[in-house]
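User: I'm writing a tutorial on reading structure tokens. Could you give me a worked example: one chain, its sequence, then its tokens, then a sentence or two explaining what the tokens reveal?
Assistant: Sure. Here is the example chain.
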Amino acid sequence: MSARKFQKASIEDLVRWYEEGSVAYGQALDAADSRSANRAQDRVTGVYRELRRRAATSLLLPLLHSKDEIIRSFVATHALEFAPEHGEPVLLWLAARPGPNRTPALYALKAWREGALKFP
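And here are its predicted structure tokens:
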């Protein structure tokens, strides 16, 4: 998706695309399909940039309660930039659980605490 398409989209579409991109990323990782995972990551990143440009990142916070851990992982990591009091507990929870989201949560927390986490 192009930046122009993101700019023309409604907030509701952006949040939905963020959610869909997160799920697609998780599915691509499960299938060991790095090309699809990269495309999905680019989609999530593009949506996040557009939401930030519109000062609407807080509209992602309800997704922290998603049943899908990969969605929660993406939102929690991005929330460290604008609402760390919401993102950090979710990342701590993910980091304490076995599974594929544990390591990314640990690294996100470590980088954030060290001031090295870069947001798109």
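What the tokens reveal: Helices lie at 3-8, 11-30, 34-53, 69-82, 84-95, 102-113. The chain has six helices and no strands.
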